[in-house]
Amino acid sequence: MLEILYEDEWIIALNKKPGITIIPNSKDDKNTLTHKLNQFLSKRGSTIKAHPCHRLDKETSGIILFAKGKKNQANFMSLFHFNNIKKRYIALVKDKFKKDSGIINFKIENKEAITKYNVIKEYDGYSLVDIELLTGRTNQIRIHFKMIGHPLLGETKFAFRKDFKIKFKRVALHAEELSFFHPFLRKEITINAPIPEDMRELIL
């Protein structure tokens, strides 16, 4: 069942569950969010295809924005490309921080990459962190927090599972908020996605 967070004439935003990919890995792969959304739109009588405007890892939950039609996809992808969409995430990361807030500014593949963070709450062996991406490099959050010694809980690509005191079945990352100036409605839009159950269990 798809969870629609926002919809208008040009875009539709879904709350992505962890464990599903956005686009197919092969020609026959139909277990993707894009395929499921287009099935849903077709049953509603729409002839327009939805296309993703950005990406989230398979393990990551939260807001994913789709455009209705290729032309709208190009318009909204340009907002992401020029960093005109504010992206906020929350993550559970290893250990406690020495500073409650900071800016991580390490290049990724020789490209500028900037991540802002604020520690929301500390627990035994991990912390809840609010994150704002100022650039959009692949795996930016996962790489940056590994580089400062605080890999995300559940991390297996940039850290070893055996290094974590707290076990988590996926990367503990959730795309919580998107905000942007809508180019067609000419007003500010903010979309929020509720924290998923698996993360909520560790922050109550």
Write the layout of secondary structure elements.
Layout: E1 4-7, E2 11-16, H1 33-43, E3 50-52, E4 61-68, H2 70-81, E5 85-94, E6 101-104, E7 115-122, E8 126-133, H3 140-147, E9 173-182, E10 187-192, H4 197-203
Parallel strand pairs: 4-9
Antiparallel strand pairs: 1-2, 2-4, 3-4, 5-8, 5-9, 6-7, 7-8, 9-10
Structural class: alpha+beta
The quaternary organization reads as: single chain
Integer-rounded radius of gyration: 17 Å
- The secondary-structure element order is EEHEEHEEEEHEEH
pLDDT < 50 runs, ≥5 residues: none
Distance between the termini: 26 Å
Percent strand:
25-35%
Largest sheet: 10 strands, mixed
What best-fitting shape do the alpha-carbon axes yield? globular
Summed over residues and divided by their number, the pLDDT gives a mean of 94
**Proportion of helical residues:** 10-25%
The total beta strand count reads 10
Please report the number of helical segments.
4
